[in-house]
Design a protein that fits this description.
Blueprint lengths: L1 E6 L6 H7 L7 E5 L1 H5 L4 H7 L5 H7 L3 E5 L13 H13 L3 H4 L6 H9 L3 E6 L2 E7 H21 L4 H14 L6
Parallel strand pairs: 2-3
Antiparallel strand pairs: 1-5, 4-5
Helix pairs in contact: 5-7, 8-9
Length: 180
């Protein structure tokens, strides 16, 4: 079985994210350049949003970071179709699985990261629409792999268990997976 997700063409690229972002809730925008992706340079993630950040910074970043990818304006491909983008996020996820804690669900950024991390995705384009098919275990696996890191960061930031569970339930709904 697979799970289908409809995407707006170009979803997740920097120019689209900035237009979709609401000025009254700007969030923290972390731009990942094409050069960083091609060199699989993940240290900037660790420096700006990593687990060693202060408690204050962790609280400000919880559910408020937009990870925007820059430098792929020359392609019509979705981020999850671009091999080097997929590889970057897979490596980043293996050393920094904190997306569930940090990512904003107000934009497409978390979904794009999840689709890049999922081992199997299939893209179908029809009439200006893009559908992404993900194996049923793909998004659920992404979610489950990030739970220990999210729980640790909630604890480190002094966020109550109840508030942490509420955030994770919201992320599960965003990813369109059943809450487990």
């Amino acid at each position: 079985m697979s799970h289908s997700i409809s995407l707006a063409p170009g979803m997740g690229k920097t120019e689209r994210l900035f237009r979709k972002s609401q000025p009254q809730q700007p969030g923290i925008i972390h731009v990942i350049t094409r050069e960083a992706i091609e060199n699989i340079e993940v240290s900037s993630l660790l420096n700006s949003c990593g687990p060693d950040c202060s408690r204050t910074h962790l609280n400000k970043s919880r559910g408020n970071v937009i990870f925007a990818v820059a430098g792929y304006d020359d392609t019509e491909d979705e981020l999850c179709e671009i091999h080097e983008v997929r590889k970057f996020f897979q490596v980043a996820h293996s050393v920094w699985p904190h997306w569930l804690f940090s990512c904003s669900t107000a934009t497409s950024c978390l979904m794009n990261i999840a689709l890049c991390v999922c081992p199997r995705v299939r893209i179908i384009r029809r009439g200006g629409h893009v559908a992404v098919y993900v194996a049923d275990d793909g998004l659920t696996g992404f979610f489950h792999s990030g739970l220990p890191a999210a729980a640790w960061l909630h604890s480190r930031a002094g966020i109550s268990r109840q508030a942490g569970v509420k955030q994770l339930k919201s992320v599960a709904r965003y990813l369109e997976i059943s809450e487990v």
